[in-house]
Amino acid sequence: MDERKLNLFIKKKDLLDKKINFYLDKKVLSKQRIVVGEVEGHLEKAQHNLNFISGISKKEYSDWIITGCYYAVYHAALSLILSRGYSSKNHDATLCVLIKEFFSDLEKDEIKMINELFLDKEDLNFYVLSKKKREEASYSGKLYFDEKDVGALIRKTRMFVDKIGGILNEG
Hints:
The protein is mainly alpha-helical.
């Protein structure tokens, strides 16, 4: 999903609901009972990916760090949607449920008060960006990426995973 489509789904809830129903019909998204161990397991997997990327060289394996960052983000996102009774086999379907269940389009001042309980547009944009970076790292012939960009991606990934951990702890 690109940023344009993300913005469309944020603005038009009816289109978002149709897309979610499409994914449910195709069985790449399903409703299930909430299994706390599964929710916790995906958050642990996100932390596991963060630990992995911390232990490898930014210079030599920046492509793998980018990939690990995205999968940390993805597993954290899976833990959130599982906490609402959804299971996903598709990255964009996961994002759609994040928008539906965890995004609030309150005004900036209002959202600051409850920021720990919801994802904001920056969080959703980061999900999209990290997926795009992962695709570039995985599918291009490029081995090395800018060290500053990789460092920023690691920091943002940690913040995203920590925020989701906070949302789950509050919920």
